[in-house]
Design brief:
Layout lengths: L16 H13 L3 E7 L5 E4 L5 E2 L5 H15 L5 H12 L3 H22 L15 E2 L1 H9 L1 H4 L5 H8 L10 H5 L3 E10 L4 E10 L5 E9 L4 H16 L7
Antiparallel strand pairs: 1-2, 1-7, 3-4, 5-6, 6-7
Helix pairs in contact: 1-9, 2-4, 3-4
């Protein structure tokens, strides 16, 4: 008589419906504006106010990175030491001067090309990277398929930068996700608005699952409150049974 076959269950979807509901309710209860979007481990985009536009702040630097490595590829150029220094400073330390220099190379057109390739629907920019406006859904789309957003020639280099943000800027999503998840991300903040954003790709270190998310805030009581909001949403989205850590 044949032994009974064991059918392995696929890993549970993250976020679960309960976790998504808890994140939604938490965001609704926070002061100011809060939007989030998540592309779950089954590829479905869900969120709260995910199509609302916000000033992008430094989150757009991830798109500047994608635009510059694409420009280099089409120019047949390598990443020389000057470019490496600029891109490293712009991403890992969120240096604005470096972002100005990279924007001077790629311009609005380069950013719009990245947005089109990433299938972002509501991205806008005019005249300077600091004027960019984003939605949570669009940033979840960008980080949900970095292989599509980044040219193959410089893909691992660019991903390495997004995984090497300095410790003082690893608030929010990384705090909620690590060490269980490997995180590639970019954050942004405007203290004058008490605005804080993050968008990220998350890959399970000891499993097959991956997802992306973006949490955008504005009009928060303080920068500390804003970063706590980002972390609170992310903790709930990643919780196996809903509810924050």
């Amino acid at each position: 008589e044949a032994a009974p076959t064991t059918v392995e269950r696929p890993p549970a979807k993250i976020p679960s419906p309960e976790a998504l509901r808890d994140a939604w309710n938490y965001a609704r209860g926070r002061t100011g504006e809060v939007s989030f979007a998540v592309i779950d481990t089954e590829g479905e985009l869900r969120g709260r106010s995910e199509a609302n536009r916000y000033p992008a702040a430094s989150v757009v630097k991830a798109m500047l990175l994608a635009a510059e490595v694409r420009r280099l590829k089409h120019a047949g150029a390598r990443i020389d030491p000057t470019t490496d220094r600029l891109l490293t400073a712009m991403i890992t330390r969120s240096d604005n001067g470096a972002a100005d220099a990279i924007y001077g190379r790629v311009g609005d057109a380069g950013l719009f090309r990245v947005a089109k390739r990433a299938e972002m629907k509501r991205f806008t920019v005019a005249g300077h990277w600091g004027n960019a406006r984003i939605t949570a859904a669009d940033m979840a789309r960008f980080f949900g398929d970095l292989d599509r957003a980044l040219v193959r020639r410089h893909r691992e280099y660019a991903k390495g930068l997004l995984g090497s943000i300095i410790e003082s800027q690893r608030w929010g999503i990384p705090q909620a996700a690590e060490p269980r998840w490997a995180v590639r991300f970019k954050g942004g903040w405007l203290p004058s608005h008490a605005l804080a954003h993050q968008a990220a790709e998350l890959r399970e270190r000891d499993g097959p699952r991956e997802l992306s998310m973006a949490v955008l805030t504005d009009d928060q009581p303080s920068h500390e409150y804003a970063t706590a909001t980002v972390r609170g949403v992310a903790e709930r989205l990643l919780s196996p049974s809903g509810g924050g850590a």
